[in-house]
Amino acid sequence: DKLIKLNKQLKTVIAPREAEALQHEIATVTSERSLLDDRELELMGVVEIAELKKNELSPLQATAKSVLAAATMALSSAKQKIDAEISALTEQRSAQALVVAPSLMATYEAKRKHRPDGAVCRLTGPTCGSCHLDISQGEINAMRLMPAEELPECPHCGSFIVF
Questions:
Q1: What count of other Cβ atoms lies within 10 Å of the Cβ of residue 77?
Q2: Do residues 61 and 53 lie in contact, with contact meaning Cβ atoms separated by under 8 Å?
Q3: Which residues on neighbouring strands pair with residue 122, listed in sequence order?
Q4: Distances (CA, A) of 148 to 62, 144, 145, 151
């Protein structure tokens, strides 16, 4: 230890100036040691508080991990169900496309490119289910009177209308 070494050296010094320099160095080392001891105590307090916080939060972390695991499993299950439903609907769509006239299918696909949320919608009251704009009663009546081979379309967005 440096302090012990300096104290031993001080006992063997005869010259007053050298003794004074050693005493100054001893005071400096003692002051530094005191500051370091204070800092160590402060850090020990911080560590103690951190340990308490860690112990307080550990059960919450375990709970959060189990909730996350359950949510991940639920999400995975939901994704599998959605993928299966998409597959089934794709098969249904392919089967239905075989009985629809190719020209009508081409028109539908063209509309679908412009309206990715759907090219066919339901009429709810006087409101188009696709663009949510009202259609006049006269236009609705004209759509209802159309021949079966013609498909009614929304005058605003062009989506096919289903009554």
A1: 10
A2: no
A3: 162
A4: 63, 10, 9, 7
CA distance between the termini of the chain:
95
Q: How far apart are CA 133 and CA 123, in angstroms?
A: 10
**Total number of domains constituting the chain:** 2
DSSP codes joined into one string, 73-113: HHHHHHHHHHHHHHHHHHHHHHHHHHHS-HHHHHHHHHHHH
pLDDT value of residue 22: 85
Tell which of 40, 73, 97 closes a domain: 97
152 token code pair = 């009614």
Ranges assigned E (strand) in the chain: 120-124, 127-128, 160-162
Domain boundary among 97, 114, 133: 97
pTM exceeds 0.85 = no
Segment 51-75, tens digit of pLDDT: 999 999 999 999 999 999 999 999 9
CB atoms within 10 A of CB 135: 20
